[in-house]
């Protein structure tokens, strides 16, 4: 969990801000998964913080949803690029609660204002797709 949150800090995903009034604040939750090797032995535990996107309000937190369709060639490129696209920039003002167990003791009533998309947000697929497309264009893949 600490590793996941440190990655958010390194990638400048959010900013801790005072809780705005009259704004939808989206909750967060932790998703845990055991990663295994080819023999089925657990090699490490993965924690991922995701936004509770089902609480988003259309027209306020997002304008539209998006589901990109990938070709086999695109999948191969993605595997070589790894996580370059995992934090696409978002255009909307989106606020999320501080993760449970990791509330800032100095500012317990503050929330995070997102600069980049998190898993679970309605606009995350479009943000990631736009970032990936930009990366591929800039590096001559397309």
From TrEMBL:
It comes from the Eukaryota. InterPro entries: RVT_2. Pfam families: RVT_2. It comes from Nepenthes gracilis (Slender pitcher plant). Residues 11-141 form the Reverse transcriptase Ty1/copia-type domain. This is Reverse transcriptase Ty1/copia-type domain-containing protein.
